[in-house]
Specification:
The protein is mainly alpha-helical. 73% of the residues lie in helices and 5% in strands.
């Protein structure tokens, strides 16, 4: 079933796109990540221009996050107060990201920037999560679990503390606000929900309870990707609605399945699987930086 993507100026297999959406939704519910970190690179590998892939993936992540938030909310796995602060930072960050996106696009370097960001960030996060997961599976996590869940010393030094009861924290809201801003910028530039950065940051920097990390991450992703979608629609005009619709068909059901499995599997195993996927995608993106494309020039519709 071939369909035509008007903004991407490309004909694709619609069933393949739906399957990719299902995989994205599954990852969203399973790991608390939006899934855009996988959707955007795979769309690029398939021939979709990086600009269109990033803009459309961030839109699709919104739909995948809705069902995930609902599922985790039913088991009280969402810290809404922490999520609200993160969302505020994410909206600010998406505005900053829109300006950066326009700048790099104006100088013709946005495709390179998107690919390079994926290589650096996915590689760093993947190695961190893989190392921590292996230690946990070897039985070393029990002795170090308490210190690892403490927030970073820089967070403790910030003023104006609030209580975040579900997260078990008494910290300054400036810390999650700054984290949210960084995630908002990445969401705008990379078309990701930011969960692959946000989840480790919530665990290792903010020191949040693991029981609410996934749900709170999805809550933040839901609203930040909404803001990002609006920014892309008003500024870059790179959102391909046909591509988004095909991705959404699969992602809604995939998120529900992932959230059910997440409850039954050990967290260390989940993190190790996610780390492996992240590192494989980072390696493929790294190789892509040195490949010469079949078509050196890409035309975007005005």
């Amino acid at each position: 079933m071939d369909v035509y993507l008007p903004i991407a100026n490309l004909s694709v297999n619609g069933l393949w796109i739906v399957a990719l959406g299902g995989l994205t939704g599954f990852l969203s519910g399973l790991f608390g990540v939006g899934g855009g970190f996988l959707t955007t690179p795979l769309l690029i590998f398939y021939g979709v221009p990086p600009t269109v892939a990033a803009a459309s993936a961030s839109t699709q992540v919104t739909g995948a996050s809705v069902t995930g938030v609902i599922a985790h909310s039913h088991r009280k796995g969402v810290d809404y107060r922490m999520g609200g602060v993160l969302v505020g930072g994410g909206v600010i960050g998406s505005g900053i990201g829109a300006l950066l996106f326009q700048f790099f696009r104006s100088i013709g370097q946005i495709d390179v920037v998107i690919n390079a960001l994926y290589v650096v960030l996915l590689g760093a996060v993947g190695l961190l999560m893989a190392s921590e997961s292996v230690r946990g599976l070897r039985g070393q996590a029990a002795a170090t679990q308490a210190p690892r869940r403490r927030h970073h010393p820089l967070v403790a030094s910030l003023p104006m503390r609030w209580r975040f009861y579900r997260s078990g924290l008494y910290i300054s809201p400036l810390a999650p606000l700054i984290v949210g801003i960084c995630v908002g910028i990445l969401t705008m530039l990379m078309g990701v929900g930011g969960g692959f950065i946000l989840v480790p940051a919530m665990l290792y920097i903010l020191g949040m309870s693991a029981s609410v990390v996934v749900g709170t991450s999805l809550f933040n992703i839901l609203f930040v990707t909404m803001a990002t979608t609006m920014m892309h629609s008003l500024t870059t005009k790179a959102v391909d609605i046909v591509l988004v619709f095909l991705l959404l068909i699969g992602s809604v059901s995939g998120a529900q399945l992932g959230s059910q499995i997440a409850i039954k599997v050990k967290p260390e195993v989940l993190r190790l699987i996610l780390a492996t996927i992240v590192l494989l995608v980072a390696f493929r993106m790294f190789l892509g930086l040195f490949y010469q494309p079949e078509e050196i020039y890409t035309l975007y519709p005005l």
